[in-house]
Structures
1.
Amino acid sequence: MTFDAVALCRAEPDAAAMLGALLAAGSELKMDTIEAAGLVQLFDPGDGRLLLSVETACLVRVPGEAQRLLGLAPGDDVPEPVWWVESRAPGADPQAAEVARRFTAALVEITGGLTWESR
């Protein structure tokens, strides 16, 4: 299973915000893109293993939809509308999970909002 981390962003994450968050996740990491899938991936520079895949931001306009999908309480401070940025890390790799946490925390620091993690 993967470790999933979602940034629920108050403002649309532009290219500068995404790049800043990716660098905050680990400036030493190697980056690649899969344009057809709308993914940015980060890799360990030493052994080349995949640490994180980040999807393109998606605007969620339906009130309460993010809470419903993530099982959040109605009182949680989820922006509406919200920009949903999902990232996935290999589940058995603690370093990968930490990269995901750093990425989502940095993105939410830039855009406002909150983070959610699968564990």
2.
Amino acid sequence: MHAHDRGEVLFPYMFWAHTEPARTRHPLTQSGMPAADPALFAGLPGIDLGHPTAEALPAFEHALAERQGLPAERVLVTLGASGGMHVAALRWFRPGVRVVTEAPSYEPFRALPVHFGAETMVIERRLEDGWRLDVAAVERACASSPGVAHVFLANPHNPTGARTSADDLARLAAAAARTGGALIVCEVYMEYVPPKDRVFAHQVAPNGVTIGSFTKAYGLGPLRLGWIALGSGVAKEARTLRDCTYLAHVDPPTITLRAGKVAVDRLADLYGPVARNAAEVKPRFERWLRSCTAIESTVPEHGIIAFPRVKGVLDTRALAEFLVKEGLVDVVPGEFFGRAGHVRIGCGVPLAQLEEGLARFERGVAQFVQRARS
């Protein structure tokens, strides 16, 4: 019986994120930057009822393709990266197909293969290994039985911020290719990485599929600006994927597409807050991750998130609720990523808010552990 037929939800994190992520004055739940300066989009009309495919959709897709160094026919616009993941699942995940994914992970990586009836194999990342993906384990999973196997993951990884190298991506793609499968990578956090260091699945391998968006690094989440970029070996899938976008949502709103074109043209301005955060706020976060005695954590090289283990705490859902009830700080419990005992913390806030939030987190953890012992 399907989970929905049992009255269960497959994406409980999003229910939580719509109601509970900022109930104190010191939320550290963010994985994206604050909203972009609306002045950057001042020239856009307030209401645009023009048909998207007449001009706005091809203009945005061409701009994205030029940015990626691809022909326009290998780029498709989606409603955010979540829309891109759903469209990819519509195309590739079905009964008889194997999907090799990872944990901890953003819930759709585990939920979408199940929802579409694919066999799901989950490879566990470990803090002790620096959250590195075990590429050999993925290779074994792909080869474990006959039939097509797709590899489905995030790079950089959510919730840990760990990065998978180009060489490892190539190995993952090759493992999928040997079965007739694709390497499907959600790369929304790659926008935090300096341009010269970015690695994209569609560039690394012919069967690489990139899913991207302007949500996280550029503060444009409400616009739902996402895309799929195809490697040369899966370029023939463009028409089928377009059909899947039509089945899922037809076209994005015209005003969103026009804003997307402006965003591509103004990326240098939109990247400014990311650079300032990396220079002014992230170093303080890194020092805390290394020195806080209440946690054990890696220190991601780029991005604004980390996924520390909280010492002495297994029920981090209860910890997060306690921190809110005490009016201390908001964090994301690791249970939503399939890893209790951890929390995701973001530093995409002003320095003073970060410092106060981290201090409150430490104080709250000490109180929570003490109460559990008494």
